[in-house]
Design a protein that fits this description.
With 231 residues, the chain is α/β, with parallel strands linked by helices. Strands 1-5-6-7 form a four-stranded parallel β-sheet, with helices on both faces. Strands 2-3-4 form a three-stranded antiparallel β-sheet.
């Protein structure tokens, strides 16, 4: 049986979550947007706001090379049929999967774009979620929001390539302060020369980045006190 204190904490957490969603909705100027992210950071944004995913890029990650391959011809690549593979073309990912006994589905768009559905157990589930959420993607180019970060062996050249891509709404979270990127945002306290994974990043990025401001078409690089930073 749960203690009265744990029940009270759960209630307080629930009320805070509801209040946060209400506040975020009140700040959003347009709720018609799709977040394209190289890991599950984008899904955490939707969860904070309490909105359905209007993007298939939730619950998965892409290696930097694959993510940039996707973005170079974004709309055409999204139209490719989704296939599945038993193993990754990246050796370090295969080693990581073996160490964790990870059997999550690996999707393919063509031969050079891998989608790692790390939060799905079966091919059928991954394929279903991808197809349904792909249909929800917004059509307006100005309502597409692209996020990248310096994880998984990402090189300075890859960061620079993302920075130069012709998308209006972009942000790139990096672990070093002198990054020289127009759309780069330094995340202090990163370890191992990279920012944290998407789940952790989704929790700490609000200290440095105003996600609602970004979704309203601005930079997100505001200087509000942390008290007001919800996403």
């Amino acid at each position: 049986m749960r203690s009265p204190k744990s029940i009270l904490n759960a209630v307080e957490h629930g009320l805070k979550s509801v209040s946060t969603r209400i506040f975020l909705h009140s700040r959003l100027q347009c709720r018609d947007f799709s977040i394209v992210s190289n890991n599950c950071w984008g899904g955490h944004i939707y969860q904070k706001i309490g909105m359905e995913y209007r993007s298939p890029f939730a619950g998965l990650f892409l290696a930097p090379e694959c993510y940039l391959n996707l973005l170079r011809d974004f709309h055409r690549n999204l139209c490719r049929p989704l296939k599945f593979a038993a193993n990754s073309r990246h050796g370090y990912i295969n080693r990581m999967r073996a160490e964790k006994n990870d059997r999550s589905p690996i999707g393919l768009l063509g031969d050079d774009i891998e989608l790692h559905f790390v939060h799905y157990e079966t091919v059928a589930e991954a394929e279903n979620k991808w197809s349904r959420r792909l249909l929800r993607m917004v059509k307006d180019e100005d309502r597409l929001f692209f996020k990248f970060c310096d994880r998984d062996g990402c090189t300075p050249g890859q960061l620079a390539e993302f920075d130069a891509l012709p998308f209006r709404n972009k942000v790139c979270f990096v672990s070093h302060e002198n990054h020289g990127l127009k759309y780069g945002l330094y995340i202090p306290g990163a370890k191992d020369g990279q920012v944290p994974d998407g789940g952790v990043l989704g929790k700490i990025s609000p200290r440095f980045f105003d996600g609602v401001d970004w979704l309203n078409g601005n930079s997100g690089k505001t200087h509000w006190p942390n008290l007001f930073r919800f996403i």
